[in-house]
Design goal:
Blueprint (H helix, E strand, L loop, with lengths): L1 H9 L14 E4 L9 E4 L8 E10 L4 E6 L4 E7 L1 E6 L2 E5 L4 E4 L4 E7 L4 E13 L2
Antiparallel strand pairs: 1-2, 2-3, 3-10, 4-9, 5-8, 5-10, 6-7, 6-9
């Protein structure tokens, strides 16, 4: 019985990591082309042994994440503002409450449109566990 309890403890999940977005925020050009400026909340960067990326990004007026081929499925979820997502040459308008589910191998990008900044949650799996 003691051996089983030890085994269960050895495979227990690590404790939760709580991240305050004000501690991981930075101003930087968006990735894949540095088109305009953005506010990046690099939330999952501080999580040890993570298997996924989870970020909040604010694309300032005129900013865009340039088109790039992705090597995993990826989700852009719009919190506020308006934008346009591109996937393999197809464009679609996005507004708050909408998500773009993008597939592995697609050539994708997103740009801010409208008067307000485009606030996104971006999430995707990592190829392997990263240790911080």
């Amino acid at each position: 019985m003691i051996a089983l309890a030890s085994l269960l403890l050895a495979t227990a999940a690590p404790p939760a990591v709580i991240i305050d977005e004000t501690k991981v925020v930075r101003q930087e050009p968006p990735p894949h082309g540095a088109i305009g400026m953005s506010t990046a909340y690099r939330i999952s960067d501080v999580v040890p042994q993570r298997l996924m990326e989870f970020r909040k990004r604010v694309l300032h007026p005129g900013a865009a994440i340039g088109e790039h081929v992705i090597a995993h499925d990826e989700v852009y979820y719009v919190l506020s503002g308006e934008g346009e997502v591109m996937s393999d040459g197809r464009k679609a308008a996005l507004k708050p409450g909408m998500a773009a589910y993008l597939y592995d191998g697609a050539n994708v990008g997103i740009r801010q449109s409208g008067k307000e900044p485009l606030v996104l949650i971006i999430s995707y799996p990592l190829a392997k566990r990263t240790g911080n």
